[in-house]
Write a structure and sequence with these properties.
Strand order of the largest sheet: 10-12-11-13-14-19-18-17-15-16
Order of helices and strands: EEEHEEEEHEHEHHEEHEHEHEHEEEEEH
Number of strands: 19
Structural class: alpha/beta
Distance between the termini: 63 Å
Helix content: 10-25%
């Protein structure tokens, strides 16, 4: 028998449903993503740390969960909200159900929610803290209002690796690796890196070494990289203050490429500012224009903060913009050539329109070498 549960937002809005996963209490920033597929990648993306994720597509779980598509070994998402949790698993790659995955990783969620009404509410009022639980509304509301805001939170250090390691797995049959007679060495700073980013770097024919988020510039350079990658990650970029002097040094020494949080940190490092979006961009169908080529690409995105375009004047060139709202989606530092994008060219899940950016990165490495 399913247990009744509630999602209570800090502004007092209540959504009722049934507990899924562990059925335990959980709190976080409530956000929505518009992808019709890719729920496993969403759950396992470290960039969702501290967030309760609402899936806007009406049914989740009908293709189950497999052993290959996780983006990290341990999910960090705070909670999961769906309209309908499928009781049928139908895919040859599936090894277990979505509910079993949630239980196995100790994740709490709620189904039976009117996710259309919830998404509209978040769009109108903005992302806010909320809780999923089985207690009375007054208790849950008090907990929602006492939960910390995403602004000011450094969550990157909590999801980063604590040790240096080499990543050797590529995309395999999905994207055969390029062979290189003189392999490049890329050091990836892990602020919450997705595994498919590391696979995409390996696909370029490069050796990839991953280091913790708090690694100093001297320690990165001691590994003798040909290029440095700044990864995605969760939380407020302005709170990851220790990364900025490191990045300032590295862009003077090596080619640098950043994605998502790495993009925001590059912006901060060169003197720009970031700000919190009302409800962010999350999904697999976000339109972006590459201003250097004029081409439009459909992208995978997951972020709640953005680089402030006016603050980049004289410090960085805006290379990509979001066609829905004109926000900054890419920058380049004119003095060093360091560049970054706000979205996810590795996709997982999502379209592959933007994979050219990994090629652009290694071409710049090769030109520097």
């Amino acid at each position: 028998m399913k247990q009744p549960a509630k999602l209570v937002l800090a502004d007092g809005r209540v959504f009722e449903g049934e507990a899924i996963g562990t059925g335990k209490f959980t709190a976080g920033e409530v956000v929505f993503t518009t992808g019709m597929t890719g729920y496993q990648e969403v759950l396992s993306d470290p960039s969702y740390a501290g967030q309760i994720v609402v899936m806007t597509a009406p049914q989740m779980g009908n293709t189950g969960v497999n052993d290959e598509d996780d983006e990290t070994a341990k999910p960090f998402v705070a909670g999961f909200v769906v309209h309908e949790l499928s009781s049928i698993v139908s895919n040859w790659r599936a090894s277990r159900s979505l509910d079993a995955y949630l239980k196995g990783h100790g994740l709490a969620g709620i189904s039976g929610v009117d996710t259309r009404a919830l998404t509209r509410h978040i769009r109108n009022t903005g992302a806010q803290t909320g809780v999923i639980g089985t207690e009375d509304v007054a208790t849950l509301l008090d907990r929602a209002r006492s939960a910390p805001s995403m602004e000011g939170l450094n969550l990157a250090d909590g999801v980063s690796t604590q040790k240096v390691y080499e990543w050797t797995e590529g995309s395999g049959v999905w994207a055969p690796a390029t062979k290189s007679e003189r392999p490049r060495h890329i050091v990836a700073i892990d602020y919450g890196v997705k595994q498919n980013i590391l696979r995409s770097l390996v696909d370029t024919g490069s050796k990839v070494t991953v280091v913790p988020s708090n690694t100093s510039a001297d320690d990165v350079l001691a590994l003798q990289p040909d290029g440095v990658f700044l990864s995605n990650g969760p939380g407020d970029p302005a709170a990851v203050t220790h990364a900025l002097p490191t990045i300032r040094t590295l862009i003077q020494k090596k080619p640098v490429f950043g994605i998502c949080l790495g993009h925001q940190l590059l912006g901060l490092a060169v003197g720009a500012k970031t700000f919190k979006l009302k409800f962010g961009h999350r999904g697999l169908n976000q339109p972006v224009k590459d201003l250097t080529t004029g081409k439009i690409e459909i992208t995978t995105q997951n972020h709640g903060f953005a680089v402030d375009v006016p603050s980049t004047e004289g410090k960085a060139v805006t290379t990509h913009i979001h066609l829905n709202d004109g926000t900054c989606q890419g920058i380049e530092h004119p003095e060093t050539g360091a560049f970054s994008v706000q979205y996810h060219p590795e996709a997982a899940a999502g379209p592959h329109d933007s994979r050219y950016l990994f090629k652009r990165f290694v071409e710049r490495i090769d030109a520097r070498r």
